[in-house]
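Protein in question quoted in full.
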Amino acid sequence: MASVILGILLVLAPLPLSTEAQTRGNLTLGSSLTANDRNSSWLSPLGEFAFGFRRMGRGAHLLAIWFKKIEDKTIVWSANGDNLAPEGSKVQLTANGGLVLTDPRERELWSSGLNGTGLAYAAMLDTGNFILASASHVKLWDSFSRPTDTILPTQQLNLGAALTARYSEMNYSTGRFNFKLGYDGNLVFYVAPPQTVPTDAYWASDTVDSGFHLIFNQSGQVYLMDRNGTILNRITSELVPTSGYYQRAILEYNGVFIQYIHPKTANSSSGRLIGWSRVSVPVPENICRSIVQHLGSGACGFNSYCTLGDDLRPRCQCPPGYTPLDSANEMNGCIQDFVPQSCNGSRPETDQFVLREMLATDWPVSVYEQSSGQTEDWCREACLADCFCTAALFKNGNCWKKNYPLSNGRMGPWEDGKALIKVRIHDTTSKCTKNDQKKNKNTTLMIIGSVLLSCSVFVNLLLLITYLIYRSFRSRDSKLSPLVQINQVTGMRTFTYQELQEATYGFKEELGRGAFGTVYKGALGSEDADFVAVKVLATRTGESEKEFEREVSAISQTNHKNLVLLLGFCNEGQHRLLVYEFMSNGTLADFLFGASRPSWYRRTEIACDVARGLSYLHQDCTRHIIHCDIKPQNILLDDSLTAKISDLGLAKLLMANQTRTTTGVRGTRGYLAPEWFRNMPISSKVDVYSFGILLVELICCRKNYKPEVEIEAQIVLVDWACDCYHNRSVPKLVESDEEASSDIKRVRRFVMTALWCIQEDPALRPTMKKITQMLEGAVEVPIPPVPSSFMSSI
């Protein structure tokens, strides 16, 4: 009789409860998991899937389901992407609420929302579905019915169900894209600006009044079916291998829907697991053309443009004169990195701007004026003379003026116009950051106040002093205690040893240690989120003393988004400590060489972040700085995975007119330029060399020197990279990385750039500014010569 009942349940339920799952995977009421370093989880009977907490950075956890047996532990469902759980949070199976997630203070963060429904147990199934069921095995709640951005084989979506893309590749909060099987039976893909109702559809199945279920069957096909079981629309129709493979289909953060497979066992020849492989054409095939929003930015963010990679995924880039608004999310748009043209009638600034050409490019919506029967020269002059003109499009005698912000940008062979982007000629000296704008605003307010109170000399003097103190405090993190002192020599904030001892809870949580000291986690102020990193330097002797003076002096003069911010210091007796901003995602070494491989896109972003930071140190600081110890351990990642250079303690300061210095060997073996060992003058080119080693490590996602590698030619990574380039076999460097392999042109460009960086002759190495342009594709990378030796630096 029991088998008959179970058979009926298998017919009625879209996702069956196997007997094995009931006997081996059941979780009783009261079962719980705690978010901590162990990342404990509940496994499916065969260990295929896990349910539990995944660390999203220091002190932040995502309640999720993931593939347990593959290397990258790919997440397929999550509960609290918009509200990450702090350390010590707990998820518990309760009779009154079902599955409930609470923080350490027992405040509810998320719940399955079951009340008084006869819940008896939960189970993680080998299908990837997490279920809550009654004692009679009736399914009361399951993750398959509440998907996030991914669907799995045997899963079906009913009328009203939807998928929502995540915010970015590493951020599981709600993103801009979603698709929904409407109650009218039509499957529609939408782009939704934040906090608005989605109104812009960019793909539809055209199955109004007929669509009923979206099915992902065990054969690897995703299709729309009507009530009678007839297939109406095949979303992914390719034949895919299913035996021995995991499968998933995902609405990616860039808005395209793609199906993937992953082998369940290691490759017999390499012994390594091959990553996810795409097995379907993205839907839609050209999202750059599919999305046109009259209210919104389009496929990419404002002031950016969309191109299609070889894998048909969208790539969002910034036009000349613009930089990404958020380096952690390429789809978040770009901002001008120069002061825009003034509309002051007395100073039109026409001669201060030029127009940069971009072929096959358009921003079709941002038009405010059109002229026909004109020449390109006329179009150029008209835009330059018009302070409202941000860019112009010229095509077949037509000139369209476009205003700020630019929207719906796209570049590709389907576009036959020429975009002309207005940029300031001397943009390197005319940049205006948000902080600058705030300072200008504050200055204006103070001047007005001074005039209004001019009747009192004393009040004006007091106002001026207050403003100077305010500016000094605003120049560093505003979260610091207002009781700290300002050092008259360095201009930095000073702390007492007791303050920092209390902030670190007695130097309890160690973040890392190096040759000159140990770094601890601390908190300033009453909020737990006000974290800092406190570096306790070694005793006041010898080189350590010099390092302290160099670090405070050097870092206090820097201000760049790709440099770790020094907030203050303590110099009290034998106690010398440095207080830095807290970097929640640790070092690049841990990120790059850990168990899971970071995406190719994230690695390219990190490479550009480090290059920009070094370019600033070498050329844009008031006093030029050589870092002298560039390596993955000295690159830190913040909560959005933006890379920042840390530990300037070994830096040699250079005056603006000084290019070389002589010093003893500094830095870390394996990243040192040859001139360190030859008693040669040291220049910023030593950092260029170290960056070249780091760049090859980012490309290949492995350490430069790996003696345990079986193939001798691959032990020294840069040697192997050089051989691969000159043997025209660059794809071998990334053959196990599908994402990088599909972007092989950029891989080759990065490899060529790295080979220029590690030239033995410092004069042959480019500047970091030129390297940044090479990486970004702004300039062509010439063919590099063969470096004569790498082994000397190991």
Q: What stands out?
A: The first helix runs from residue 2 to 12. The radius of gyration is 29 Å. The mean pLDDT is 80. The chain is about 20% helix and 25% strand.
